Amino acid sequence: MDAGLSLRETCRRLASIGEDPARLDAILITHEHSDHVAGLARLAKKLDIPVYISRLTAPAIDWLGHSPKLERFQAGAALAIGDIEIDSFTIPHDAIDPVGFCFRAQGVKFGLATDLGYVTDSIRFHLRGAHLLLLESNHDLDMLKVGPYPWSVKQRVMSRVGHLSNEGASDFILQDFERGAVALILGHLSEHNNHPEIARTSASRALESRGLDTRLVIAQQKQPTEVFEF
Ligand SMILES: [Zn+2]
Ligand SMILES: [Zn+2]
Whose atoms come closest to the Cα of 190: which ligand? Predict the structure, then answer.
């Protein structure tokens, strides 16, 4: 899902977990922001595999003169790739037609939702029953307010089509997080307006107040997370 890293870095990270990029079946795209598609055109060209992308998002990508196999879908559509069933769902974010995904295979459900201004009822519905969840925990509100961004950017990040704060992630944990989930991964942390330990503390408190001892993992930008096996 997504291809924000360079082709080289994507291949390097796959190799580091013993995966051969040539064995990938498809690439799925959430939205056209550069941190999600910067390596897409080259990756799609090199691997020559289909790119699943929303109908409205596809024209926003610079394919660098190459014409990859596009599988255009309507945001909200259900997809299937091999034995993986996939649901796409609309997320509130300042992109053309942004989506999140959940993946189901062999009785395991994995939900991913980053780049969302807030958690809508539809997102809640789609993430229900996830055994593994990657949720955005983008910024600490106080750090954002005193941080280096211009005011207009701060407003954008905080808006209903911006990014989910640590506080927003905690609210989700308090109200909606599934008791049966094996692990919660916090991701898409801002380098300038957050700190992994602040995000962790905020989410841990929320889990504790629910009496949950769910494993909490903080995804870092510079290194891959562990591999989750079920
Ligand atoms: Zn984005
Ligand atoms: Zn992003």
Answer: 2
Q: What angle do CA 131, 134, 135 make, to 5 degrees?
A: 120
Answer yes or no: are the C-beta atoms of 100 and 108 closer than 8 Å. Answer: no
Calculate how far, in angstroms, residue 93's C-alpha sits from the geometric centre of ligand 1: 7
Interval 97-152: pLDDT, tens: 999 999 999 999 999 999 999 999 999 999 999 999 999 999 999 999 999 999 99
In angstroms, what is the span from residue 32 Cα to ligand 1's centroid? 7
C-alpha of residue 211 to centroid of ligand 2, in Å: 31
How much helix, strand and coil, in percent to the nearest 5, is found in the chain? 30, 20, 45
Q: pTM value?
A: 0.96
Q: Minimum-distance ligand to the CA of 33?
A: 1
